[in-house]
From TrEMBL:
<feature type="domain" description="EAL">
    <location>
        <begin position="24"/>
        <end position="278"/>
    </location>
</feature>
<protein>
    <submittedName>
        <fullName>EAL domain-containing protein</fullName>
    </submittedName>
</protein>
Amino acid sequence: QAKALGRNTYSYFNEKMNRDVSRRLELEQAIRGALQRQEFEVVYQVQVKVNSGEIIGAEALLRWYNPKLGQVSPVEFIPIAEQTGLIIDIGQFVLTQALSVLASWQQRHHRALKMSVNLSPRQFRDIKLVDMIEQALIQAGVAANCLELEITEGVLMSGHSYIKKTLSALSVLGIYLSMDDFGTGYSSLNYLRQYPFDVLKIDRSFVQGITTESTDRKLVNAAIAMAHGLNLTVVAEGVETQEQLHLLKSLNCDFAQGYLLGKPCRAKQLLVLELMPL
Ligand code: C2E
Ligand code: MG
Ligand code: MG
Ligand code: MG
């Protein structure tokens, strides 16, 4: 009995492992050349001021549609793009697209709207990163202080000295640095102490619980107070209900982002968005 169960358990994991490996290989093959085949698109999710509802900018989010695989989530393909090094070219594509859309968006509304772009760990090992970003800003004709780069702890974990140099160089250019998914990592506080961050993005998992879990509410309250004490502004991620937004307002949160305020949309729709409060 036990033996049979053991064997079944073994083959269950074995099958699952095989499935995972072949899915990975399939994705890896498909993602090579996806850029050339123009299968990527950047979508945009607005960020608003909590106390007025005014739109202040947007976050660029990458989408991949492959004819054979369909829509693949960035949560699945970004790690593969990382490991294969393809993220260097893909990341440049996202930045170039996002800045060109930002330039049009600003011109249309005559306002210094902002754009947030996610950076992944591998991009930090590229010695040309700072140059590439500087060139992209010049080419788009966008001021450095309208660009914000979102960094998760994964970037910082390796602790190499070039990370500090790179972040400082970006900061000196006037680019804003934001710590993404705050609260989910291992040593966010240590990173806040070491690196020149300007913005704290509170992870969706905390925001989701603020109206129902008093612990989540207290943690978010403390995170906001701490951020303000360090002269950082705070963005709440994943705001889905009016109650959450209302509570964030009472906690002095600066900015919010989430399905309540706008789902990620295509560039064309972003450009014609009504910027006035909802
Ligand atoms: P992230 O940077 O934390 O982005 C926020 C994610 O939450 C996005 O998922 C967004 O669509 C989703 N979201 C926004 N509002 C809500 C909400 O109200 N409710 C819920 N349930 N979800 C919401 P997405 O687009 O699937 O991206 C997932 C992650 O993939 C991103 O997390 C980011 O880490 C990564 N990613 C996306 N685009 C890029 C990129 O261009 N470069 C890099 N390096 N990473 C990217
Ligand atoms: Mg982000
Ligand atoms: Mg995030
Ligand atoms: Mg998140």
